[in-house]
Design brief:
The structure is a homodimer of 337-residue chains. With 337 residues, chain A is α/β, with parallel strands linked by helices. Chain A is built from eleven helices and 17 strands. The longest helix of chain A has 16 residues.
């Protein structure tokens, strides 16, 4: 069968999405510890775009197939493969796998099994955003039911996962979004996911915030994917000794913090990058599996769904790339392979 | 004997140093758990000025005697006082004591004993700056001999204590100072204290930094008392997963951090305030005493001296206040009481 892959052939990635080409690829021979995978679906994430633009912290040597997330079905395994068999669903264990292709041969160690009884779009979008949300809610502050979290970019893939995971554990969320034409619809959608409060950035400096804090405590955790002024505003609402975790910078502006917040409110600023976490836990398979188990459990219980997705055949990848880069996009582009 | 105190009578402190008056004060009766103290010496610190200006995070109810640090000798103790006796040297256990006076009656709990065999100016300047330096070097990163620390405002009271304490424990220091007319003299003085490298702010973005890191490792800890652009520059040299602790903001500008430093270098930003530490450890006398013991031990061994001081009789407090607020002041004003 034909094997197609979308990626960059080089020499520079700076040309951005226009430099992505669809090509016929050879499927290499199956090695001793290799797994032949039929890819099923793979999303287009902001980090994929940044890698293509050459602005990401890790870049693949060219030529490279793009795409860091997705799900595939095992077609065949090498004789040394122990934990996977034909028919299993697999997702990337790490960034850089190159998921935008119809078939591939991967080393077993580069794959993680996921149950095949969860929805395809959930499996395809599980390894980056829900994992990021899960870790940020777990690793920085020990949150108890009744505690609250504030986050910006609440409509992003991570943001939607944060809302759902927090809701499932009894943690309240204050969700900051940019003002937009269809705001009421977005508010409704995030509340349907379990958001307690959805506000626009300008509300962060208004008395309405006081109303919110009459019914829920000030957040001990703030999750920042924006930067610039609105992040500084969000930080003002953090509890003393609370932590703000930065995992993205959509506004392309730095994080600016008044000195007094450090000294007199003892706020703690950290960063999070799922790729680094996976690197740091490469020899701690246990924490990776227990996280995946917990997330799949939430999926099965209907407490964690896939983000709003638009599915697109691989052949139409170029339109999907353009659509993924539109401002205020509320739907993730997912390539069907 | 006459009892004089310098402080503010109100109603507002915003008038700044001009609002400080020298007044004859009554010495109250010695209560059951009180200690009558003859104050000996008290420095003028930036936090004292900020309190007088009404811009500090804690302000005394007016009228109030100013001064948060100093040393006194016990003249008499109340019948319920257990740990202090006549002749002992004492320093404030906490901020807000009002040390700019000749005599006072304080509750025993508000005082800490220090050995009377250390130099007067060391004792008078021990409870804020050396404690701040000690805690910042201990509480955020576990530094081993050979590790390095970078700090700005290296010429401040805290900065000089950092240099000496780090030197005594085998930790190397990179010390950032503002350029000034008598720079070579300052460099020489800080090196005499044990500084490994003394550089001006503009060097932070020059290739000379690479030379420094040929002989010592990148710092795991950065201590920030400035804010603004030079703090961002300093942060660039921190090791991945290193911590920057902000304890002051001399530039009156916020701390600005590129999003990538959080995500891809996992830098951690914290704050420190000695007053808060003391509050948090109010029921943990042990950690306070062990810190004071360690500091006095360094003093006795000649490894920790008082900062450069200019001693001034209490009557001349107004000139001392003005002198303490000059830019590039390299000498701490200490009132002799």
């Amino acid at each position: 069968s034909q094997n197609l892959g979308a990626g960059c052939s080089g020499p520079g990635m700076n040309a951005g999405p226009k430099s992505v080409l669809l090509k016929e690829l050879e499927v290499p021979r199956l090695g001793h510890s290799d797994v032949h995978v039929k890819m099923l679906a793979a999303p287009i994430n902001p980090a994929d775009i940044n890698m293509i633009q050459g602005t990401y912290a890790i870049l693949a040597p060219l030529p490279a197939v793009a795409g860091n997330e997705g799900v595939g079905r095992v077609l065949e395994v090498g004789p040394g493969v122990t934990a996977l068999r034909r028919g299993d669903w697999v997702i990337p264990a790490d960034a850089g796998l190159g998921t935008w292709r119809t078939q591939a041969v991967f080393p077993e160690a580069s794959l993680l099994q996921v149950p095949s009884d969860i929805p395809l779009l959930c499996a395809a979008t599980l390894s980056v955003n829900p994992c990021t949300a899960y870790r940020m809610l777990s690793d920085f502050e020990s949150l108890a039911p009744g505690d609250s979290v504030i986050q910006n970019a609440a409509n992003s893939g991570v943001g939607q996962a944060v809302i759902q995971i927090a809701k499932a554990t009894g943690v309240r969320t204050i969700n900051v979004v940019r003002d937009r034409p269809d705001l009421p619809k977005l508010v409704e959608r995030l509340k349907a996911l379990g958001a307690d409060h959805v506000i626009t950035e300008d509300v962060l400096r208004k008395p309405e915030m006081k109303e919110i804090f009459k019914s829920i405590p000030k957040p001990r955790l703030a999750l920042n994917c924006v930067g610039g002024k609105s992040t500084t505003e969000m930080l003002r609402h953090l509890q003393p000794k609370g932590t703000m975790v930065t995992y993205g910078g959509m506004a392309k502006q730095p994080v600016t913090v008044p000195v007094s917040a450090f000294i007199f409110r003892d706020v703690r600023l950290r960063g999070f990058w799922m790729t680094q976490w996976k690197k740091d836990h490469a020899h701690d398979k246990e924490s990776l599996t227990s996280m995946m188990d917990a997330l799949c459990q939430l999926v099965r219980r209907g407490q964690l769904g896939a983000p709003a997705c638009t599915t697109v055949p691989l052949e139409d990848f170029r339109e999907a790339l353009v659509a993924s880069m539109q401002p205020f996009t509320s739907s993730k582009q997912v390539l069907l392979l």
